Amino acid sequence: MTPAFASALMPLMRRVDAETAHGWALAALRAGLAGRDAAPDDPALAMEALGLRFANPLGLAAGFDKDAAAVLPLLRLGFGFVEAGTVTPRPQGGNPRPRLFRLEEDRAVINRMGFNNAGLDSFLARLRDLPRPLPGVLGANVGVNKEGAEPERDYPMLCRAVAPLADYVTVNISSPNTPGLRDLQGEDRLRAILRAVDAPALGKPVLVKLAPDLADDALPALVELCVGQGVAGLIISNTTLARPETLRSPQRGEAGGLSGAPLLERSTAMLRAARRLAGPRLVLVGAGGVASGADAYAKVKAGASLVQLYSGFAYGGPALVRRIKDELAALLRRDGVARLADAVGVEA
Ligand SMILES: Cc1cc2nc3c(=O)[nH]c(=O)nc-3n(C[C@H](O)[C@H](O)[C@H](O)COP(=O)(O)O)c2cc1C
């Protein structure tokens, strides 16, 4: 099967419950049925960031492959990088189903999965089993269990465990479905966690993933804190608890984090604000509502060196990866920009 053929099946997938469809997608990927994109990336899309070389800036955001079960087939779809996780120290089942909802009319998703995952030991075993070198960059996203969490103990333990097996590590303190998690974005809590993580000693770049619901006036202190603690970059952003007036889908009242098109504007505005504050001191990863080359380009111009998507991929399927890359390369040519790196932050 080719990515285009796999994408042609997406309307069929939309007829079943969203989490069932997600399970099928992972199974198809693991069985090698999603196809691969063998075409080389346009050299203009290459990006040096975090001390790593990305063949293209497009990544799969955390949460799609929580257990690192399909890293290789996902990279073969043409992603420049894949972020596996969120993994927690111990396995946990997450919230009761249904907990994943498509807002078709809004090109959006609401989820309250609650970090369902097989736990750290299984995650590490999966990463160890991967063939090296991988055909792209691998990130590992870590979080804490719902019960019995001690963030100042758990995050450093998780980071040290995954760092030898991944190219970068993401400290996720911004998922809305683990009670209290977002409070860890408070300055004092985050400082204590980052001190304990000790990013400079980890040997791999550490990213911190933020929520789009942070107050604008909280950002300057967080940026300085992250720079001061040796954090390499920020992922902006996770899902939002906001429910924009524009939502039309019957599912809009479901509890959980909203992602996809309605998140684009807010997450890009926050990204731009972070770029203004951080300048080149932090690598910024733009996530939220990306579904086209133009969306990805907007993130880059706002300050992102790298871009991630989840919801757009859930709607568009495997063929979207190639399409976004082709559109992005065409936009660079249109604007006379030789390398994507030259466009980072030009509109910040
Ligand atoms: C079903 C689902 C599960 C997610 N799980 C995680 C997760 O485990 N860890 C995480 O950091 N982000 C998680 N996210 C957030 C995404 O990584 C991303 O930041 C967010 O969805 C915004 O991007 P998008 O608009 O392209 O989906 C999840 C998103 C969705 C839709």
Please provide a written account of the structure:
The chain has 348 residues and is of the alpha/beta class. It contains 13 helices and 13 strands. The longest helix is centred in the C-terminal third of the chain and has 16 residues, at 319-334. It starts with a helix and ends in a 14-residue tail after the last helix. The site of flavin mononucleotide has 27 residues, from strand 6, strand 11 and helix 12.
Do you know the CATH architecture? Alpha-Beta Barrel
Q: Tally the helices: what do you get?
A: 13
Q: In percent, how much strand structure appears in the residues?
A: 15-25%
Strand order of the largest sheet: 3-4-7-8-9-10-12-13
Briefly, what CATH class? Alpha Beta
* Poorly predicted runs: none
Give the tally of structural domains: 1
Rg, nearest Å: 18 Å
User: Which percent bin holds the helix content?
Assistant: 25-40%
Ligands bound here? flavin mononucleotide
What is the CATH topology descriptor? TIM Barrel
Order of SSEs, N→C? HHHEEEHEEEHEHEHHEHEEHEHEHH
Backbone structural class? alpha/beta
- At the fourth CATH level, what is the homologous superfamily? Aldolase class I
Give the CA-based shape.
globular
- Average residue pLDDT: 95
Number of strands: 13
**What's the story with the biggest beta sheet?**
8 strands, parallel, barrel
Summed up, what is this model?
By secondary structure, this protein is an alpha/beta fold. The chain is built from 13 helices and 13 strands.
Write the layout of secondary structure elements.
Blueprint: H1 3-8, H2 10-13, H3 18-30, E1 47-49, E2 52-54, E3 58-60, H4 71-76, E4 81-87, E5 100-103, E6 108-111, H5 120-129, E7 137-142, H6 151-162, E8 168-172, H7 187-197, H8 199-202, E9 206-210, H9 219-228, E10 233-236, E11 257-260, H10 264-278, E12 283-287, H11 293-302, E13 306-309, H12 311-316, H13 319-334
Parallel strand pairs: 3-4, 3-13, 4-7, 7-8, 8-9, 9-10, 10-12, 12-13
Antiparallel strand pairs: 1-2, 5-6, 6-11
Helix pairs in contact: 6-7, 7-9, 9-10, 10-11, 11-13
Bound molecules: flavin mononucleotide.
